[in-house]
Design a protein that fits this description.
The protein is α+β, with helices and mostly antiparallel strands. The chain has nine helices and 13 strands.
Length: 337
């Protein structure tokens, strides 16, 4: 008999839960709800171009409203899914100035809080380029039943219980870690299920790709400029220059580098003295995934996950990817203050 060995995301979550006899299934429910929200957002993104055409043809919705922005839609869908899981007592989102506390009876006792970038790379939607969602899960530090506060969300990245992203690309994928390996699931649209497609992902120790917005080059710190020049000169192992690849969606750039090996950089510059990426919503989750896949994430001289966030929307320079490449740029930065 031919074997059809499919592991769905839900199968996988339940299997992993069995490794923790004390687990009550709370965390599994939370992940399941994130998966459902991802399917909803993915489906909407697939129709984005079409909605645009229909909109232009004068098909305004019944209330006469303009097309809702997709990042707002994604924010609402993920927030609702987290609330209805009953396991999450609050959310911090890149889309909102302040945290959202869930005071509903069924959620107030939830043990987890979630930080998210509901739609990363959203400016790429118009040109049909991949975008993503990034999430990060922490255990609350306030007591169960109490209202959550900013302190619950300003924990160091090392305290993450899980982190992941969804990439809405030529296929939709969810990649996540609970601190015990990184696994990737591809959405089978005919089944409507995420299926395990990339078990135990490992970031190559060294890669051939560097990803940075080189338009900002002349404003970069000296060490970063020298590292970029080094990449343009020669990779000793191939005797060719490194390859430059930049999409402008962190999720997509990171995903490619995770599979192929490489470094993603968003350094400080005159325009962005602290870089552009947000520690809580973007850098910490991707750093947790990178480290769990054997890679590295740095703000130039320090490990990202060791930074204690001072505020929700704090930015940081960011270097993430293959360990040998991130270590080398740290060296360039150290030697060129
Ligand atoms: P977002 O769409 O969530 O605001 O994030 C965009 C971010 C990130 O995804 C991307 O890598 C970076 O901005 C691109 O910035 P530049 O256009 O300055 O290169
Ligand atoms: Mn983003
Ligand atoms: Mn965003």
């Amino acid at each position: 008999m031919k074997s059809y060995n499919i592991t769905t995301l839900d199968d996988f979550i339940i299997r992993r839960q069995k490794d923790y006899p004390e687990a009550k299934g709370e965390f599994s429910r939370l992940l399941h709800h994130i998966g459902t929200a991802a399917k909803m957002v993915g489906s909407k993104i697939r129709k984005a171009g079409l909605a645009d055409i229909l909109g232009r043809a004068g098909n305004i919705n019944v209330q006469g409203e303009d097309q809702q922005k997709l990042d707002v839609y994604a924010d609402e869908v993920f927030t609702s899914a987290l609330l209805s899981s009953g396991e999450c007592c609050g959310v911090a989102s890149e889309e909102n100035q302040n945290i959202i506390t869930f005071t509903h009876e069924f959620a107030v006792n939830g043990n987890y809080i979630v930080c998210m970038d509901p739609l990363d790379g959203s400016s790429n939607i118009d040109v049909n380029v991949s975008v993503g969602t990034i999430f990060s899960i922490y255990r609350r530090i306030s007591g169960r039943g109490a209202e959550v506060s900013d302190d619950d969300f300003l924990q160091k990245g090392t305290e993450q219980v899980a982190a992941g992203y969804i990439i809405y690309g030529s296929s939709t994928m969810m990649v996540y870690t609970t601190g015990n390996g990184v696994n990737g699931f591809t959405l089978d649209p005919s089944l409507g299920e995420f299926c395990l497609s990339h078990p135990d992902l490992k970031l190559p120790q060294k890669g051939k790709l560097y990803s940075v917005n080189e338009g900002n080059y002349i404003k970069f710190p000296e060490g970063v400029k020298k590292y970029i020049k080094y990449c343009q000169e020669r990779d000793e192992s191939t005797n060719r220059p490194y390859t430059s690849r930049y999409i402008g969606s962190l999720v997509s750039d990171f995903h490619r580098n995770l599979l192929k090996g490489g470094i993603y950089m968003y350094p400080s510059s005159e325009i962005y003295p602290d870089g552009k990426l947000r520690l809580v919503y973007e850098c910490n989750p991707m750093a947790f995934i990178a480290e769990n896949a054997g890679g590295m994430a740095s703000e130039g001289t320090k490990r990202i996950l060791d930074i204690k966030p001072g505020s929700l929307h704090q930015k940081t320079p960011y270097f993430v990817g293959s360990t040998e490449m991130v270590s080398l740029i740290e060296e360039f930065i150290k030697n060129n203050p």
